[in-house]
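Appendix B, example 12.
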Amino acid sequence: MEQHRLDEAYAFCETVCRNASTTFFSSFSALQPDKRRAVHAVYALCRWVDDIVDGDEEPTILETKALKEATERRQSVVSELHGDATPSLSPDEHRRRMMALVDIRIKLQRASGQEITEKDHPIFIALQDVFTRYPIKLADFETVIEGMEDDLYPVLNQTWDELRSYCYKVASAVGLILIEIYGYEDRAARLHAIDLGIQMQLINVLRDINEDMERGRVYLPLEVLSSHNITLEMLANDSIAQTLEWKGFVVEYVDVIKRHQTSANHLFGYLGGRARIQPEIMADAYTSILNEIVRRSGDVFTHPVKLSALRKALLGFRLGLRKLRARLFA
């Protein structure tokens, strides 16, 4: 692969990251250039598959005979995993998105095997280089895609374990990829990275209840909701935010988040000075979101929960201080 083509691929991934999330993109700036480019590539891939599943990206696929057959095989596996449940989308739309995810699976396999060419998508060109530089695992990428496949079906989690399993797929697996790029010396770091991913995704789930329900997804554990006398019908009514039942549920939910947070906070000590800045900043951002939810007494229904401009400025200031500290004490 010619260097200019590789540089163009990484630049494409950087643009995806910059356009998708200023908070994530800013946090990546603390990394050394090579690690930063690798993280951009991973994030761009994750952003892409998420957009395909949520309908924010129109998949463009060359439907070859081999791809159709691979999609049929994967669909058979996914249908069995979901007990032959009916997908959320129309059959044609479901097939298109499933085929796009299978196509990405195949190209990730090719990237890990150094089979990507200059004709392939820039994200795979960049990821192929990342596979040669860092001990990232193809299986972790496949776990992320499995989580995206789950979202093609109505989601009705029943238990904490089912919710944690989903969080592991779409968040912890990403963290396991990233810490291989950051570098660590003790494998215990992987356990704490898993908890960081679960913590962050649990906060996402609580924050995004309205948006997820519109897509036919209820990630909150129904058995736990039921123990607080909360039904699905109640979740569809904003007035639930003022009820004692909901406030009691939120207390339990926040307690579970904080238990994962206690473990997650140990991750930073296993990472180098510059590498730990990115996950620290993201943990700070998500903690700020959680604190805002708690300040609202759990009301995530009447107004979207977002970081204020002041809070973003404070995170930026803290990022600058941490980058300075890392340079001084490296």
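Residues 319-324, 326-330 have pLDDT under 50 and may be disordered. Residues 41 and 127 are 6 Å apart (CA to CA).
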